[in-house]
Write a structure and sequence with these properties.
about 375 residues; alpha/beta; Aspartate Aminotransferase, domain 2; Aspartate Aminotransferase, domain 1; three-stranded parallel β-sheet; 13 helices; 10 strands; globular; binds pyridoxal-5'-phosphate
Length: about 375
C-alpha cells in the first residue's frame, strides 16, 4: 500500500473561468437554446477552421445524426473499426444498419484502408473511421473508395492531418467530437458535429431539436427528430474550456512525452506510435500494449492494488456479447485488432499529471510486469 495520494485515471481541468461562465448562465435564467449555443458553435468552428458546427448532447448523438445525414438507413452497411469505443458501432444499429468491421493498422491502430476496401459491398452506405487515441486516420486513402464518410473524432481534438488541416477542420465529411469529462475538452456531457455544408448544418440543428425547422413554431414538425440538444450551461462550460484548450493540450503532450521517456525502460512494452509524415496526435489517453505473455487482466488488478488505476482499453467490439450474439462474431476474424486489444491498457493521464506521478506509475508497472 502506498501512503501517497491516489492517482486518478483521468481528471478534467476546471477552474474559475468555468465556474464564472456557468454561473452567468444560471443567473441569466436562459438555460437552453440561448445565446451560448451559437457562441460555442462559432468559437469551436473557428478554432478548427471549419465553416459550421452543431453542438449536441453527446458524441454518440452526433455520430447518430451524422450517419443519418449521409444516408445510412435500414439494411445498409457501415464499415468501421472494431478497435474503438462501442458507440462508434452502436450508432449504425440505431438506424437498423449493420456495422461491418475492418481490421486495423498495427502501428496507428486506426482502420486499415486496404481492409476497409475489402469490406465494401453493394450495401455499403458509409465508412466510419475513428481517429483512435487522437491519432489521425488515413482519410485520403478512405476517400478514394468513393463512399460517404463520417469521422469519429471524439478522441481527436487537437489532432492534425499530414496536410496541416485540423482533424474535423476540413469539413468535407461530418466529423464528430465528444465532450465527456475524460476528453480533451469537456462540457460534462456533450458533443459537436463539424461540416462545411450549410444544408447538413441545418439538418443537424433540426434533428437535434425534434425535427423543428429554424423558422417554424414549436408545434409543427416536418421530419423526425430527437432531443439531442446541448444546454446553454454546457455550452458555457465548453466556451470556458475552449479558451484554455491550448494549455490543456500542451499539458497532455507534456505528460505523454514524460511517459514516453520514463516507460522506455520496460522491455517489450509497446508505446503509442510517434507522429509520422506530418500528422500530429491530439493526446487523449496514454495506452500501452503489454509485453507478449503478460496477463492483461492480472496486470490491471495488480496495478490497482498498488494505487495505480488502469483499464483494458479498448476491448474489441466484435467480441462483445451483444455483437457476438447478434452477428455471430468470433475470435480470429480481425487478428491485428484482437492481438492489440488483448494487450492494451490505458494508464492514468490528464493535463495536470506531475512528473512524480508519471514516475510512480512507471515504477509500479515495471515491477508488476517483471513479476508476471
Ligand atoms: C467518447 C467517444 C465517443 C462518444 O462518447 P459520448 O460519451 O457519447 O460523448 C464516441 N467514439 C469514441 C471513439 C469515443 O472515444
Amino acid at each position: 500500500m502506498s501512503a501517497e495520494e491516489p492517482i486518478p485515471l483521468a481528471r478534467p481541468f476546471l477552474g474559475e473561468v468555468e465556474e464564472e461562465r456557468v454561473l452567468e448562465v444560471l443567473r441569466s435564467g436562459h438555460l437552453s437554446l440561448g445565446p451560448r449555443l451559437a457562441e460555442f458553435e462559432g468559437a469551436f468552428a473557428s478554432r478548427l477552421g471549419v465553416r459550421h458546427a452543431s453542438a449536441v448532447s453527446s458524441g454518440t448523438a452526433g455520430l447518430h445524426l451524422a450517419l443519418r445525414a449521409v444516408g445510412v438507413s435500414d439494411g445498409a452497411e457501415v464499415i468501421t473499426s472494431p478497435f474503438s469505443f462501442v458507440a462508434s458501432a452502436n450508432v449504425a444499429l440505431y438506424e437498423r444498419a449493420r456495422p461491418v468491421f475492418a481490421d486495423i493498422d498495427p502501428v496507428t491502430l486506426n482502420i486499415s484502408p486496404d481492409a476497409a476496401a475489402a469490406a465494401v459491398t453493394e450495401r455499403t452506405a458509409a465508412i466510419l473511421p475513428v481517429h483512435v487515441f487522437g491519432y489521425p486516420a488515413d482519410i485520403p486513402a478512405l476517400e478514394r473508395l468513393g463512399l460517404p464518410i463520417v469521422e469519429d473524432a471524439c478522441e481527436a481534438l487537437g489532432a492534425v492531418h499530414a496536410d496541416g488541416t485540423a482533424v474535423g477542420g476540413g469539413g468535407a465529411h461530418p466529423a464528430v467530437f465528444g465532450f465527456y469529462p475524460n476528453k480533451q475538452l469537456t462540457t460534462g456531457e456533450g458533443g459537436i458535429i463539424t461540416t462545411a455544408d450549410p444544408t447538413l448544418k441545418e439538418r443537424f440543428d433540426s434533428e437535434r431539436n425534434q425535427g423543428r425547422a429554424p423558422d417554424m413554431g414549436w408545434l409543427d414538425h416536418d421530419r423526425l427528430g430527437f432531443n439531442y440538444r446541448l444546454s446553454d450551461i454546457a455550452c458555457a462550460l465548453g466556451l470556458a474550456q475552449l479558451s484554455r484548450l491550448d494549455v490543456m493540450l500542451a499539458g497532455r503532450a507534456r505528460v505523454a512525452a514524460s511517459y514516453r521517456e520514463s516507460l522506455a525502460r520496460i522491455e517489450g512494452l509497446e508505446l503509442p506510435c510517434v507522429d509520422a509524415g506530418g500528422a500530429r496526435r491530439g493526446w487523449f489517453v496514454f495506452v500501452v500494449q503489454l509485453p507478449r505473455g503478460v496477463d492483461r487482466d492480472g496486470t490491471v488488478r495488480a496495478l490497482n492494488e498498488r494505487g495505480v488505476p488502469s483499464k483494458p482499453y479498448f476491448p474489441a467490439i466484435h467480441l462483445m456479447s451483444l455483437y457476438r450474439e447478434r452477428f455471430g462474431h468470433r475470435e480470429g476474424e480481425f487478428p491485428v485488432c484482437e492481438d492489440v486489444a488483448a494487450r492494451s491498457i490505458a494508464l492514468p493521464f490528464f493535463p495536470e499529471m506531475t512528473e512524480g506521478q508519471v514516475a510512480r506509475v512507471t515504477a509500479v508497472l515495471d515491477d508488476v510486469v517483471r513479476r508476471a
